[in-house]
Amino acid sequence: MSHSSNIQLDDNLIDFINKAKQKGNIRAVKILIKDEKLVLDDHVEPQGSWKDDFIQSVKKMFLDKEPCYVLLRLDSAGNSDDANYDWILICWSPDDSHVRQKMLYASTKSILKLTFTFSSTLNDIFATCQDDFNPLISGDYFKTAKQISDDLLTVQEQDLRNVKREEALSRSVNAPGTHSIPGIEFPITDEAVDGILRFKEGSIGFAEFSLDLSKEMIQLESTEDASKFDVKTLGSRMPTKNPRYILFVYPHQYEGASLKSIIFVYWVPGSGCSIKEKMLYSTCKLPLLAAIQDARKFGIEITKKLEIDDIDELKEDNLLNELHPPNSASASKPVSFAKPQGPAGKRGAKRLIRTGNDA
């Protein structure tokens, strides 16, 4: 069975899950994507309650740097048929896993849901760390059928956001671990792509990018959560001897309105960096900016672009002046130019010219 994502389901996986649904003798099924196929990787049989089994055995299925799916069978049944248990689909996507893998697993989840239709399946769980399972273990995860229906729109909105994220990642795939941007010789790393996407989503308020000259890549240097970033720290973040590309959100008040301006800074220190480094940063700047703003790629609307070489230019007063230039009354008046006078002392006395009518 093939799909538009070119991911197929292994026959052994289909057979195993269908039997697990009928017999109810499996607690959890771990599924991986290997060689463009969804395959059975591991399973756990019931030893106690679903919660005990989850804590003792199922949690061990979730490994660092390895996204996966786990179908977890609960002890409750959807109807009078004892074999028709409630199931939960867990999508495990650890923070330290490869962005390409995250993208692949996120876009393939629907294949599992469409292929293995459980008559009683609760909401999916998306987890990036072990702490994300706490609501499941404590029972906070479980909701009534009405609450699930009320939350359906939110789930759809989340799926739409994930689809947009996957599309942005997949539009310019280059070598493994990088993405190419037309016009830039240096590819951009997965981490840098993910940083731009997280900035767009609003989870981070500051992102710093650098050029790895030895590997010839645009890489993510550092980030700061949106809730923690303070624009007053900008000056101290700038390296003294290396250029940088900076994206940050500047929340501020102007004429009674609360604004959030997105500013791109091309930082070039006045001294300390080589001519070659400056040239490479200058060459990559405009194509990178174009990609960040392009609606087909990242679609971030930048309020102001700055090129600076002095950290004083990052002070709030200067940022406000750049975003909201003070009105100048004289600027609106037309400029009149006085006619130049002749050289002083060189002009002769006025001459009286008589006409023929003068007597």
From TrEMBL:
It is found in: Cytoplasm, Cell cortex; Cytoplasm, Cytoskeleton. GO terms for biological process: actin filament depolymerization; barbed-end actin filament capping; positive regulation of neuron projection development; regulation of lamellipodium assembly. One of its GO terms (cellular component) is cell cortex. Residues 322-359 are annotated as: Disordered. Residues 4-143, 183-324 form the ADF-H domain. InterPro entries: ADF-H, ADF-H/Gelsolin-like_dom_sf, Twinfilin. One of its GO terms (molecular function) is actin filament binding. SMART domains: ADF. It holds the Pfam family Cofilin_ADF. Signal peptide: none annotated. Keywords: Actin-binding, Cytoplasm, Cytoskeleton, Repeat. Actin-binding protein involved in motile and morphological processes. Inhibits actin polymerization, likely by sequestering G-actin. Interacts with G-actin; ADP-actin form. Belongs to the actin-binding proteins ADF family. Twinfilin subfamily. This is Twinfilin.
